[in-house]
Amino acid sequence: MTGTEQEPVPTGTGPARPGTTEPGTTEPGTAEPGTTEPGATDPGVTQPGMTQPGTARPPSRAGSDQEAARRWRLVLGRYASGHLDVSDGDQRLDSTLGFLYDREYTARGHAVSRHGRGGGRGGAGTLDGSAPHGVDFSALTWLGEARSLFPRETFERMQVEAVGRYGLTDLLGDRETVEAMEPSRELATALLQARGKLAPSVADGVRRVIERVVEDVVRRLRPRFLTAVGGRVDRSRRSTHRVARNFDWKRTLRANLGRVDADGRMLVQDVRFNARQKRALTWDVIVLVDQSGSMAASMLYSAVCAGILSGLPGIDVRLVLFDTSVVDMSHLAHDPVSVLLTAQLGGGTDIARAVRFAEGQVRDPSRTVVALVSDFCEGGSVSDLLAAVGRLRSSGVTLLGLAALDETAEPVYDQGTARHLADAGMEVAALTPERFAEWLGEVLT
């Protein structure tokens, strides 16, 4: 310790700084190609006491220590400025990371020194923003800098933390900047969770981000629903409706076996397609979606699935959102963006009340599906919930329970309540939206 007091270097208490590498480098704690961490081995590297013809000698220990110090400096940020220097080549990386993640330290009451962004080599602390190349960042210029420096996955994560964790909503106030953002489910989820705290001036930017994410999800999921739910394939009849989902590869192969060119390759001139059976009767699909605070990601996919289903023939969709109250959003089921911007995430959970509401919407029990999307963390009466499920099941209604999934597609739900629901007659599963399409298709056909 010198005569100048410094802030201690934190160990595991500071913010995680993702993507502290640039192309050609690796994350802290991982080995670059051709190098190894202390104690690790790499089959492509000559170890001490070993020789391999034509292979390069491993880097010196000094070189490895320098690279480790470089990585830790980028991870720790301004707290390490009194102990580790930032190379000229890393100034842009450090400034871009610091603009975002130094907010974590400032929020905890740590001062930012005029000399070296923290830790202080003398001088009073300030709250000045980060300044790459001597020019202060704005939220908008930071976005462009981060996009140019980091891989897409890292950039997407930084976007989410900028908006959802650190409140950089200026990013949403400029149309060109919004278009430059990488739409992702995580970003949409962060916006949905923070929407009630955002200023009216960024409402258009929020809508545009949600629109882009919904468009991407619809583009991915719609073909799965069309295939699974759009009617069963009738392989006994041929169709002149030439679409990919009706393609009959077996009959096409047999029809063209005798057609080959001089090199023996098949010439496909007769392409066969299957017909599809049409549904004679309409199915009612009632989608109950838990809108408590933990359900933002599931809310996104549920709204999109309801929107796709509402556009399919032979299906009448009712979309119901609930927490401790119940809101019928069926009039907006065709427009998932409006549903998401209307939903009020947060509050408690009264699943029994939502299921009782669904009871009142049933017209033909034998042709009705009630799909409950929830984490099954019932805040009300579990016995009332099970009684309502039992009544629906006894009447002939098909009941599907979809457990909530977290950001890594891992199920997060109350397993005890889920078991009780299954015992009462509800089929419960933790499925991706793609698998839900297949599951619903099996039920309807």
Order of helices and strands: HHEEHHHHHEHEEHEEHHEHEHEH
Instruction: Kindly provide the name of the CATH class of the domain at 283-444.
Output: Alpha Beta
Average pLDDT reading: 75
Low-pLDDT ranges: 1-13, 21-55, 113-136
**Widest sheet: strand order?**
7-6-5-8-9-10
Shape summary: globular
Percent of residues in helices = 25-40%
Number of distinct helices: 14
* Helix-and-strand structural type: alpha/beta
Task: Label the CATH architecture of the domain at 283-444.
Answer: 3-Layer(aba) Sandwich
Looking at the structure, the CATH topology of the domain at 283-444 is Rossmann fold
- Span between termini: 75 Å
| Radius of gyration, taken over Cα atoms and rounded to an integer in Å | 29 Å
Number of DSSP E strands:
10
Strand content: 5-15%
According to CATH, the homologous superfamily of the domain at 283-444 is von Willebrand factor, type A domain
Biggest sheet layout: 6 strands, mixed
How is this structure best described in words?
It contains 14 helices and ten strands. It is an alpha/beta fold. Among the domains are: 61-137, no CATH class; 234-260 and 267-276, no CATH class; 283-444, von Willebrand factor, type A domain (Rossmann fold), CATH 3.40.50. Strands 7-6-5-8-9-10 form a six-stranded mixed sheet, with helices on both faces. Strands 1-2 form a two-stranded antiparallel ribbon. A two-stranded antiparallel ribbon has the order 3-4. Residues 1-13, 21-55 and 113-136 have low confidence and may be disordered.
